[in-house]
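Archive record:
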Amino acid sequence: MTNLINEAFAQARELVMNALGALVADGTFPAEPIPAFNTEIPADAKNGDISTNAAMVCARPFKSNPRKIAENIISKVQLTGTFFEKCEVAGPGFINFFYSKDWYAQVIKSVLDEGEKYGETDMGKGKSVLVEFVSANPTGPMHIGNARGGAIGDCLAAVLEKAGYNVAREFYINDAGNQIEKFGKSLSLRYMQICSDAGLEICKKGLDMEAFCKEIYGEDGNREEFPMPEDTYRGMDIIEHAKNYFDEYGAVLSGQSEEDRKKSLVEYALPKNIEVLHNDLAKYRIHYDKWFKESTLHNDGSVAEIIEKLKASGHTYEQDGALWFRTTDFGDEKDRVLVRENGIPTYLVPDIAYHYNKLAVRKFDKAVDIFGADHHGYIPRIKASMTALGVDANRLDIVIMQMVNLVRNGEKYKLSKRSGKAITLATLLDEIPIDAARFFFNLREPNSHFDFDLDLAVSQSSQNPVYYVQYAHARICSVMKKMAEEGIEVKPLDKQSMQSLSTSEEFELVKLMATLPNVINEAAKAYDPAKVTKYAVDIATLYHKFYNNCRIKGEPEDVMQARLSLSLAVKQVIKNILDMLKITCPESM
């Protein structure tokens, strides 16, 4: 788990502190406490690789000119055996350090030695994190928002793993409550439409599903008999379930009570929907450690237990026959109903029970949820519930994800889930490569709106970012293949050969490779996999620039070998990133 950027920063600070100590010891400066100072990477490479304002912050305690302090510091700095070949004073008193060739060689060696583990860190210290994402309503197919949530959640989980956390992925199945009631009602009405006299006559024609739907429901998807209210699901999947049940069992449910009919149809259709969720997500390269059913919280008494625990917390009250949770005690804009007048808990109760299960029962150190923007108001009440139950609400983090616009030919698609015309995850993956979907959905930080360009996603050009990154990997593979065909052997890296690195293109590449562990940590801290995809594009950009400006074959042996080693290191870094994102790494394109 090498991090040569951090080691260089630490070394630069130590060199400055040792020099200041020597200057105080010889009486050049008074024995005053050294103020905190910054070390940073300068925006302009001309100003060195690491810069510090140590001399400037010492001006007041030392009662001296900052530039003079800087010059004195440099006079005491001992660079022998360090990562730096020189240091200079710049401007009003900045001290700039420049990496030695040995540091560049060490970076390349670290990448090649650590291989697939390069970039991993121990920031997480093995703490357990449960990442819950997608958790799509099982009453219908997954839509484009679920597609983005899946890519973000799965890639975030991978980033957290690379940062040293023990990560579990989870899908929460909402198989209880109002949406299941609505699902059953929708299935029942569609089924009864099929069982009507007119429906039975149409069934006898043996039409395919599309023709059947058009004839029985017309253009607006409805019939006078058993009309579909506004609060029902009207997608094609509901019709298919009802028709498939009829084809298998006939009109046996038409004479039953509506409740029994809904129950039978839900028991028939819901497992099929959940299986589709499994299959579609597996195709998307998403595999969960656990599929957690909401119904288990009702069946094992967890929901009832949470109600009693909240009552005992002293933050509930009864009003108009309902039980209320005083979330305003915790900064929410208004109090929330826990149990309605009819004694039925609101959706909030099982959600509280679920998060309590994550943090208090299964004892994950951290729970991370990926939610759509419409859940923004949900955050304070869930955090309030954890605090009321004695659980540290800071252990729950919720990532808000904005919606996606699909764009084709420069125009946005207008989608309507209720009418059944939405582009689903399955249809999206039929249109574009899975690699593009996973990469594109992580091109922007989650809480930003995103236009997904379908035309760009399928293009094989440098404008397509995932193609551009994959092409850099394939280009390096091609270089190595051609060398092997011509009998040129890539020799083990040695420091002597690395002394031949001399161009800005080479140095930029090495410095960027050195930052990968920090990029992983920053992405993990911010819950933002886009930092990694941006890094992948940056490393590919620098390699293409290097390839175009720096010859490999035909150069002196030491230069050629140094550039081959550099290329192999870049190849490894790109592979590590794409493997982490579950994106293929082609060796030819």
Observations:
- Residues 416-420 have pLDDT under 50 and may be disordered.
